[in-house]
Amino acid sequence: MPLTLHVDAARWRDHVRRYVDQSTGNDGVVVVPVTKGNGYGFGNAVLATESQKLGVPTLAVGTYSEVTDVATAFTGDILVLSPWRPWYDDVDGEARIVHTVSRLDDLHELAAAGSPRPRVVVEIRTSIRRHGIPPAQLQEAASALADVQFEGFALHLPLAGDHLSEARDLAAAAFDTRPDDDGRQLWVSHLAPTAASALATEFSADVRLRVATALWLGERSALRPRATVLDVHRVRRGETFGYRQRRARRDGTLLVIDGGTAHGIALEAPTPATTVRQRAVALAKGGLESAGRALSPFRVAGRQRWFAEPPHMQCSMIWLPGDVEPPAIGAEIDLDVRLTTTTFDRIRWDD
Ligand SMILES: *Cc1c(COP(=O)(O)O)cnc(C)c1O
Fold it and tell me: Which pTM does this prediction carry?
């Protein structure tokens, strides 16, 4: 079997459903599932299908190129999180697409697009400082909104700390520029549902909670990445192996396993390590890598095993010491991987 994400379907769907129900149980809160990139291990099309089943009004994607991944399975509105820029001039007209606008110039340009008026969420710059119109320009932005279909303001908040007061200050500044609006909408990320509900009450707004990790990966024990052993080769001390013809220093076994760089195996995102201990762990791993050894994500007999050499495109070669009984060809083994960087060949919905 290829590199497979086994999903305990009932448990996973139960968590997802409960997350949505509990969040929307808070007054004024609407859940907006987000899918992007590798679709959190599932793929964007699969999460579009799941979002459709949830009956949510809007699904968010990361980029304009991801719209086509979800547009068939999901029939509601599609919010694009990456801000619109003038070079995306072929995407304005679609009635289901809600654009994120993060600069005054872009807002003016979209406003000039004419009919049908593009649907626009105005992103306000937060302490993340990624994208967004600075609060000082909100008044000017408000005057340009007449020529678009205004769908609310957006706040992308940091993961660290509690940012309810930042959200409150920015929302107040934003809604002050639109005193006469009915049906106010505030799109937020990384706020607890209860905090979102507090904002909804305070500003008489619908708060749209954009969420991915806590929703799709919140019940991690229902998700089990597994890979299949494709080949098993006994190797004697002194024999060579691999593209690099490294020489075995002891007797052992080479396992050839499904899953390589094409699946994102061993491609780590930079660590967000901030504590001394986390940095020490990252340094230790890097040190081993520079010595030509790297711990693989594959587990055999209860332990993570070393790569015999850097992973190939579609498979990996793993070194097993001679005293460890190798698994059989065709056996499935566990691997510890990040689900935001791994692309699986298939999903197996286990009941
Ligand atoms: C990716 C993304 C999200 C979802 O983030 P999670 O931390 O996975 O919930 C929310 N908002 C924005 C703007 C994003 O880019």
Answer: 0.92
